[in-house]
C-alpha cells in the first residue's frame, strides 16, 4: 500500500497499538532543555523512577535562559546538569557550548531521516526537515520518553504543501511559511503533519527547510516534514559517512522513507511563490499575516534577529547584506542572537558580527532569550518588536508588548528605518 | 481518579494559547503550587478579569476552538489542576494540550460547535456541569434549566485517566 513518509516512520517504530487509533512508538532521540525537563526529572525522582532508557539517545542543552539570570533559572540549570552527570548523558551542552535547541541538535548531526524525535518543546517539529517525524510533547510525555523510550501518538494525517515557482528577490523561507500558516490557519493542521514539497523546497538549504518545518506547529501541525535528499545528505555527510559505502548508497537508503506515489493526503495545497511579497504578522496569532506593503511604516521599538526559526548562519548573512555600511535608526534597539556557538564563530569569521556591531546592534550569546520574553530584550508594555521568531502571542516578548513576525531581511531594513520596511526597496551588499 | 465537575468558567474566544493560560515568565517555577495565582493572567479577552470570583471558584472551563494552542508547556494543565479545574470542554483542542490533559489524568472534552453554543447559553446564569465519567455524559445545570449531553473520549485517554496518568501506565507496560 502506498504510504506517506510519516506512515512509514510510524510503521518502522511501532511498539504497539494499545487501543485502536493510538500508536505507541519507539523513540530514537529524546531532546531536553532546562525549562520543561527539570520538572520531569523532579517528578521521576519523586516517583522513585529516576532512570533513563538510554543515555546515548538523550541529548540535553541549556538554552532558554543562559547564562542564568536569577536563582530560579540557576536552579533549573543545576537540576539538568546534575541529572545529566548522574546518568552519564554525555551529549550535554552547557554554557560556552550551548545554543538554541532546534539549531544545535541538528548541527551536531543527531537527527537522521526516518527518525522519531520528541522534546518538551512545541517547535520540535523543526527536525522533520531531515525527513524525520519530530513532535513537541508535554512534560509527562517527555518523562515517559526519558524513562522508557516510547511515546504515544494518534496516527497523523498528512497535508501536502507544494511550493512552486521561484522565490523572488527579498523573499525567503520565512515568508513562505507565514503564507502557508495564513492559508491553513492556526488550527488547520491539528493532528496532521505538514509535508513540504515542490520545486522551491527541492532547492532550499537545510537551514531554510528548518525555517519552514519550525513553524508547522503554528498551524497546529504535529511535525513538519521534508523528503531527505542530496541537500540533506550533504548536511549530514560528516556524521554518517562511515555508515555507508558511498553517497549513492546513503541516498538510496534515504529514498526508502519518501512518501510513495499515490499515498493518501488529507489535503493538498499548491502555493506559487513567484509573486509572493515579504510577509508580516499584524495581530496576536501567527495566521494574521499581511503583505509587507500593507504594514510598511509601522513604528517599532526593537528589532530581534535570532531564535530556532531564523537565528542560523544563512539568516545572519541575509540580514548583514542589508545592514552592511548602514546604521540602524536611533529610535530602535537592535538585538541579534546567533543560534549556536558555531554559527556565532562562523558569522564572526565572515565579518557578519562586525557588520551588526557597526550598524548598532547588540550581539548576544546564543540563547532563546527575548523570543519567549524571559531575558535579553523583554519589551515594556506598549512596545513593539519586529522579530524573526515564530510567535506573536500577546505578551510573548513581555507583558503588554506586541511582536510582528517577519524574515531576517524585513527585520534588517526595519531596523534601519525604525519602522516596518520592504527589503525589495533596499540594495543588498556583498559581505 | 480526580473529581470532575462543578461551577463553569466560560471563555468566549477561540485560539486561547498556553502563553495566555500561564505566561512564560512563570516557567522558572519548579513546583505546580507556585503557578496557582497566575492562571489566565495574560488572557486577552474583553472584560476578562483573572481575579474575579468565578475564575477562582470554577471547576470546569467551557470554551471555543483550538484551545491550548502554542507552547507545549504542561504548566497549562497544571495551573488548572492546582486551581481545582480538572475539566476543559471545547469545540477543539491543540494536540499537545489535549494530550497533556489526559496524561495528567484530566479531561479535555471535545463537543461540536452547536453543543458548545448550547452550553454558552447558560453563561449568564450561574452554571455548573456534572460529569459522569463511566457513562461519558455531562449535565449542565443553571437558572435556565438542566440538560445532558454525551461525549466521547478515546479509549487510550480513558485508560490514562483510570491509571492515574501516562507515567504509571507506561512504566508498568513497556
Ligand atoms: S528560540 Fe523561541 S521558539 Fe525556539 S525553542 Fe527557544 S523559546 Fe522556543
Please supply descriptive tags for the structure shown above.
heterodimer; A: 431 residues; alpha/beta; five-stranded parallel sheet; B: 174 residues; Aconitase, domain 4; seven-stranded mixed sheet; 7 strands; 29% helix; 21% strand; binds iron/sulfur cluster
What does this structure look like?
The complex is a heterodimer of chains A (431) and B (174). With 431 residues, chain A is α/β, with parallel strands linked by helices. In chain A, 33% of the residues lie in helices and 19% in strands. In chain A, a hairpin with a 2-residue loop joins strand 1 and strand 2. Chain A is globular and about 60 Å long. With 174 residues, chain B is of the alpha/beta class. Chain B has one domain: Aconitase, domain 4 (Alpha-Beta Barrel). In chain B, strands 4-3-2-1-5-6-7 form a 7-stranded mixed sheet. The two termini of chain B are 22 Å apart. The interface between A and B is large, with 58 and 43 residues. The complex binds iron/sulfur cluster.
Q: Which structural class do you get from the secondary structure elements of chain B?
A: alpha/beta
CATH class descriptor of chain B: Alpha Beta
Q: What name goes with the CATH superfamily of chain B?
A: Aconitase, domain 4
Task: Supply the helix-strand structural class of chain A.
Answer: alpha/beta
Instruction: Indicate the mean pLDDT of chain A.
Output: 97
Strand order of the largest sheet of chain A: 5-4-3-6-7
Number of helices of chain A: 16
User: Which fold name fills CATH's third level, the topology of chain B?
Assistant: Aconitase, domain 4
Order of helices and strands of chain B: EHHEHEHEHEEEHH
Tell me the total number of β-strands of chain B: 7
**C-alpha termini separation of chain A:** 50 Å
Number of helical elements of chain B: 7
Provide the low-confidence segments of chain A as ranges: none
- Structural domains of chain B: how many: 1
Q: What is the C-alpha radius of gyration of chain B, as a whole number of Å?
A: 15 Å
Q: State the helicity of chain A in percent bands.
A: 25-40%
Total beta strands of chain A:
19
Sheet of most strands of chain A: 5 strands, parallel
Amino acid at each position: 500500500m502506498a504510504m506517506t513518509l510519516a506512515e512509514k516512520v510510524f510503521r518502522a517504530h511501532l511498539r504497539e497499538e494499545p487501543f485502536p487509533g493510538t500508536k505507541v512508538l519507539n523513540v530514537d532521540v529524546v531532546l531536553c532543555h532546562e525549562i520543561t525537563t527539570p520538572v520531569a526529572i523532579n517528578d521521576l525522582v519523586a516517583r522513585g523512577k529516576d532512570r533513563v532508557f538510554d543515555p546515548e539517545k538523550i541529548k540535553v542543552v541549556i538554552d532558554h535562559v543562559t547564562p542564568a539570570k536569577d536563582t530560579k533559572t540557576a536552579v533549573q540549570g543545576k537540576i539538568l546538569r546534575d541529572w545529566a552527570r548522574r546518568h552519564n548523558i554525555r551529549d550535554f551542552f552547557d554554557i560556552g557550548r550551548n545554543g538554541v535547541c532546534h539549531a544545535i541538535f541538528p548541527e551536531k548531526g543527531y537527527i537522521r531521516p526516518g527518525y522519531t524525535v520528541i522534546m518538551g518543546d512545541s517547535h520540535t517539529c523543526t527536525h522533520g526537515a531531515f525527513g524525520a517525524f519530530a513532535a513537541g510533547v508535554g512534560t509527562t510525555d517527555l518523562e515517559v520518553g526519558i524513562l522508557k523510550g516510547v511515546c504515544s501518538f494518534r496516527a497523523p494525517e498528512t497535508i501536502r504543501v507544494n511550493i512552486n515557482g521561484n522565490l523572488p528577490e527579498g523573499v525567503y523561507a520565512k515568508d513562505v511559511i507565514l503564507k502557508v500558516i495564513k492559508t491553513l490557519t492556526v488550527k488547520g493542521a491539528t493532528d496532521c503533519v505538514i509535508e513540504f514539497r515542490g520545486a522551491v523546497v527541492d532547492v532550499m538549504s537545510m537551514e531554510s527547510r528548518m525555517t519552514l518545518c519550525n513553524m508547522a506547529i503554528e498551524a497546529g501541525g504535529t511535525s513538519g516534514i521534508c523528503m531527505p535528499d542530496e541537500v540533506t545528505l550533504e548536511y549530514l555527510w560528516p556524521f554518517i559517512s562511515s555508515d555507508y559505502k558511498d553517497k549513492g548508497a546513503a541516498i538510496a537508503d534515504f529514498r526508502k522513507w519518501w512518501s510513495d506515489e499515490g499515498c493518501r493526503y488529507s489535503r493538498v495545497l499548491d502555493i506559487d511563490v513567484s509573486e509572493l511579497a515579504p510577509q508580516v504578522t499584524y495581530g496576536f496569532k501567527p495566521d494574521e499575516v499581511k503583505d509587507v506593503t500593507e504594514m510598511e511604516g509601522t513604528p517599532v521599538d526593537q528589532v530581534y534577529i535570532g531564535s530556532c526559526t531564523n537565528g542560523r548562519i544563512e539568516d545572519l548573512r541575509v540580514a548583514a547584506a542589508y545592514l552592511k555600511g548602514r546604521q540602524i535608526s536611533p529610535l530602535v534597539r537592535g538585538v541579534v542572537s546567533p543560534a549556536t556557538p558555531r554559527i556565532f564563530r562562523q558569522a564572526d569569521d565572515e565579518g557578519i558580527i562586525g557588520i551588526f556591531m557597526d550598524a548598532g546592534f547588540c550581539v548576544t550569546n546564543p540563547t532563546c532569550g527575548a523570543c519567549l520574553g524571559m531575558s535579553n530584550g523583554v519589551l515594556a508594555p506598549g512596545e513593539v518588536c519586529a522579530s524573526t521568531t515564530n510567535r506573536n502571542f500577546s505578551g510573548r516578548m513581555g507583558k503588554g508588548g506586541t511582536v510582528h513576525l517577519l524574515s531576517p531581511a524585513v527585520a534588517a531594513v526595519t531596523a534601519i528605518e525604525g519602522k516596518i520596511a520592504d527589503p525589495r526597496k533596499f540594495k543588498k551588499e556583498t559581505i | 481518579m480526580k473529581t470532575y465537575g462543578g461551577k463553569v468558567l466560560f471563555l468566549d474566544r477561540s485560539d486561547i494559547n498556553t502563553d495566555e493560560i500561564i505566561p512564560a515568565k512563570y516557567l522558572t517555577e519548579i513546583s505546580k503550587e507556585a503557578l496557582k495565582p497566575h492562571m489566565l493572567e495574560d488572557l486577552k479577552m474583553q472584560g476578562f478579569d483573572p481575579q474575579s470570583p468565578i475564575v477562582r471558584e470554577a471547576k470546569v472551563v467551557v470554551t471555543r476552538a483550538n484551545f491550548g494552542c502554542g507552547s507545549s508547556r504542561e504548566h497549562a494543565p497544571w495551573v488548572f489542576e492546582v486551581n481545582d479545574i480538572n475539566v476543559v470542554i471545547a469545540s477543539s483542542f491543540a494536540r499537545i494540550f489535549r494530550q497533556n490533559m489526559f496524561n495528567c489524568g484530566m479531561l479535555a472534552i471535545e463537543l461540536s460547535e452547536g453543543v458548545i453554543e448550547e452550553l454558552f447559553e447558560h453563561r449568564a446564569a450561574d452554571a455548573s456541569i456534572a460529569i459522569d465519567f463511566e457513562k461519558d455524559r455531562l449535565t449542565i445545570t443553571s437558572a435556565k434549566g438542566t440538560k445532558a449531553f454525551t461525549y466521547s473520549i478515546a479509549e487510550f485517554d480513558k485508560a490514562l485517566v483510570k491509571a492515574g496518568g501516562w507515567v504509571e501506565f507506561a512504566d508498568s507496560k513497556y
